[in-house]
Amino acid sequence: MLFDNDFLDQLRKAKSIVFFTGAGISAESGIPTFRGKDGIWNKLKPEELANFNAFLKNPDMVWEWYQHRKTIINETGPNPAHVAIAEFEKYYNDVTVVTQNVDNLHHRAGSTHVFELHGNIEKNYCIDCLERFDDTTFEMTGKTVPHCDKCGGLIRPDIVWFGEFLPQDVFAKGEQKAENSDICFVVGTSAVVYPAAYIPLGAKRAGSFLVEVNIEPTEISSTVDYSLFGKAGEIMPQILEQVKLFI
Ligand code: OAD
Ligand code: ZN
């Protein structure tokens, strides 16, 4: 792939880089996206699964669905896009991932500065006493929702559902990193879910060079400085190869 000289110049002189990622970056790991051709939300309605009332109404069904997602995630791993992003840390001092994904694949690929805007499917907490159950000593599998061993309350995945607030400190830190970045990559996201989608817009407003990597044009395509259309698992390693040539 041939890259624009303007982009290569930005890449050469950048000190601080942010990767804002969405479900599309994990598509090549075999995890279905939410929207688009094979998107989950084409088949299942978010309001039936991804909100607190749905959980209270049918906790076992919601629990089982997330366990199913978790099984898919556990059986797969990071793909070349996650790995390339983690490797950027070898070439730049200031690399941050701000992700909408809950699949933990950036961590598993080796990225060390990851802000998870929508939570993490590996983590859980009690809806009553808020006790956290982040380890596997507690039985988290199966078709029925577990109960808290402290108070008996229902245990839910630590995922931001529709109508819920994002973790404010995580969002604020991610936003600040994006605004101070020299380049902000927007990888595999439809960029339609707010407030998460404010992150790249804020970066652009603050003067960052916005680069989109997606298989197709999105809401943010008309705003970005540079669009690269193709699979993240193919494009991100090629960008990393360019970076290696600067050394
Ligand atoms: P979406 O499913 O909305 O968008 C996925 C994007 O990835 C689309 O723009 C696809 O074109 C693109 N894509 C698919 N395969 C790709 C590939 N191999 N390489 C590059 N791009 C690819 O996912 P998000 O934008 O992450 O919220 O959705 C945002 C939020 O909506 C999610 O975090 C989730 C959902 O409701 C919560 O769970 C709280
Ligand atoms: Zn409890």
Structural overview:
With 247 residues, the chain is of the alpha/beta class. The chain has two domains: 1-31 and 78-118 and 166-247, TPP-binding domain (Rossmann fold, 3-Layer(aba) Sandwich), CATH 3.40.50.1220; 38-75 and 120-159, SIR2/SIRT2 'Small Domain' (2-Layer Sandwich), CATH 3.30.1600.10. It contains nine helices and eight strands. It has helices spanning 5-13, 46-49, 52-57, 59-75, 80-87, 105-109, 168-179, 198-205, 232-246, and strands at residues 16-21, 94-99, 114-116, 119-126, 155-159, 183-187, 209-214, 226-229. The strands form two sheets. The chain has a six-stranded parallel sheet, sandwiched between helices. A two-stranded antiparallel sheet has the order 4-5. Helix 8 links the parallel strand 6 (183-187) and strand 7. Helix 7 runs parallel beside helix 8 (198-205). It is elongated and about 60 Å long. It starts with a helix and ends with a helix. The mean pLDDT is 94. 2'-O-acetyl adenosine-5-diphosphoribose is lined by residues 22-24, 27-28, 33-36, 39, 46, 50, 100, 118, 159-160, 188-190, 193, 213-216, 218, 231-232.
At the third CATH level, what is the topology name of the largest domain? Answer: Rossmann fold
**What percent strand?**
15-25%
Shape: elongated
Rounded to the nearest angstrom, the distance between the terminal CA atoms is: 20 Å
- What small-molecule ligands were found? 2'-O-acetyl adenosine-5-diphosphoribose, zinc ion
Structural class comes to: alpha/beta
Number of domains: 2
Spatial strand sequence of the major β-sheet: 3-2-1-6-7-8
Poorly predicted runs are: none
Largest sheet: 6 strands, parallel
Full CATH superfamily name of the largest domain: TPP-binding domain
CATH first level of the largest domain: Alpha Beta
- How many helices? 9
